[in-house]
Amino acid sequence: MLKGFKNFIMQGNVIDLAVAVVIGTAFAAVINALVENVLMPLISALVGAPDFDSFAAVTLNGNQILFGVLLTQVVNFLLVAAAIYFVVVVPMNKMIEARNRRHGEPEEAEDESITLLKEIRDQLTAQTERVNPEAFAAAVAADREAAEAARAAEKAQQHRDSTLRGKAKNILWGSD
């Protein structure tokens, strides 16, 4: 029983998860400090209050409904998300791009079955072109016509969608 517990604890993914939780907790303190001590005071300087708790407060049958508290939390969430994006995601993407430029883009390995199917397709195309050029030309023309028909159908669907959206907007905004 203890050996099974030891094996479970020593698994790589459990250790990785524990490290991620500890680092995430420490990093949350950094992001919260940025939001609470830098971004929120800037908003407070612009708006005049550090939060929106008293904004849009409504009393209904003696019960107070505070929409401002929700608004404050939404603003906090957006600030935290923006801080994480601009402090972590953007620099990390830049570092990855720089590394890939330095070392070259890693080539994605294509599945062996897909490679085999492409080779078969190419051989059949070459055979058809050599043996029966008229059939090959007809097949190419049929492919072009099918692609053209698909494009026309997609364009017609987009037109129908835009027309329905236009009608819906007119109904919503009272223009219809």
Keywords:
mainly alpha, 176 residues, 2 domains, 2 strands, single chain
Task: Give the secondary structure arrangement, pairings included.
Elements: H1 2-10, H2 12-47, E1 57-60, E2 63-66, H3 67-103, H4 112-131, H5 133-173
Antiparallel strand pairs: 1-2
Helix pairs in contact: 2-3, 4-5
What's a quick, concise take on this entry?
With 176 residues, the chain is mainly alpha-helical. Helices cover 81% and strands 5% of the residues.
Q: Can you put this structure into words, describing what you see?
A:
With 176 residues, the protein is mainly alpha-helical. The protein folds into 2 domains: 2-103, Orthogonal Bundle (Non-ribosomal Peptide Synthetase Peptidyl Carrier Protein, Chain A); 112-173. Helices cover 81% and strands 5% of the residues. The chain is built from 5 helices and 2 strands, in the order H-H-E-E-H-H-H. It has a two-stranded antiparallel sheet with strand order 1-2. Strand 1 (57-60) and strand 2 form a beta hairpin. Helix 2 (12-47) crosses helix 3 and helix 4 (112-131) packs across helix 5 (133-173). The termini are far apart. The model has no long low-confidence stretch (mean pLDDT 79).
